[in-house]
Design goal:
Elements: E1 3-4, E2 13-14, H1 15-22, H2 25-35, H3 37-54, H4 56-59, E3 80-83, E4 86-100, E5 105-117, E6 119-129, E7 133-141, H5 161-197, H6 199-214, H7 217-226, H8 234-246, H9 250-264, H10 268-275, H11 280-288, H12 293-316, H13 328-331, H14 338-343, H15 349-371
Antiparallel strand pairs: 1-2, 3-4, 4-5, 6-7
Length: 377
Amino acid sequence: MLAKANPKGAEPVSTADDKFYAASERQLIWWRFRKHKPAVIGGIVLILLYTVAIFCQFLSPYGPTNRFPDYQNVSPTKIHFSEGGKLHRPFVYAQKRELDMETFQYVFTEDTSKKYPIYFFVRGEKYKLFGLLETDLHFFGTGDPKVPVFLFGADSLGRDLFTRTLYGSRISLSIGLVGVFISFALGLFFGGISGYYGGVVDEVIQRVIDFLISIPTYPLWMTLSAALPRDWPVVKSYFAITVVLSLLGWCGLARVVRGKLLALREEDFVVAARLAGASEFRIIRRHLLPSFASHIVVSITLSIPGMILGETALSFLGLGMQPPAVSWGTLLQDAQTITSVALYPWRLIPCIFVMVAVLSFNFLGDGLRDAADPYSV
């Protein structure tokens, strides 16, 4: 460890200690967060997942509803890099569908006489990037619409599962953020009122929270989701499912906010602000909430996986998003039976994305929780 000598001959003082004592709380939080390797990895994975969700139209070789009737239930396409002992750019072979007379099921075999290179930045189906810029540029493809590339295989209708998984990330990942934002607003509002004013207001809000928490979560979600009209458009159903998922999510955060405000409302800085003429709303917004903002961030981060799992579960059961909407839950509907899983195991690939997203949020939340108190041992 580097040290600087005291000119009067005193014991050396560590420059690392000087840096620690001179650092701001934000710097201390960042330094401690970086030491939590799983949290850093989880943050990087989440950035990649949300980047993929934003640019899914460009990264996907086809549209989510494109059908290839000759490739129903085809397994993931094998990508080759060599032929005859020589290296080539990535390519795929054409596939032939034949009927197996023993099982009476269609099987696919590669036709090695026809080779199709994989190109980057190819032209394909038109789409509007961010809903504004119309283009037909896709990240990769064979350039031949009759020879598709199925990285994750195809479903029973011949639709590319890789494309639909990327498109599904938009709903499954965003519904967690939107749902937590609603829960965040409700939790701060009711928890702030309950903890700051106390008395009858606190008693009424806490009894309402007790009642809501006592209701079984998934049966309530299923009941409310089943009550939604089946003919609603995708956007309307999306926001309705988000509200359903947020209905109970704010209760835990409200309890946390209430406890913090009860502990801080009689502190000297709060009394000083009140004597200075600050309004009650300003005291809560400018003095109390910022004092435990890090804990709120941690609570939000750890609540998002519950929202994602809730949407996935409802859609898996057929009570959440409905076709033509695409989410990870709706994709997993095809994997409800043992037969489909045994014959077409690639239909479970969206489940891997759900697990990775949930684990990443949990790792990130653990790291933020440890870093929120940088002065603890």
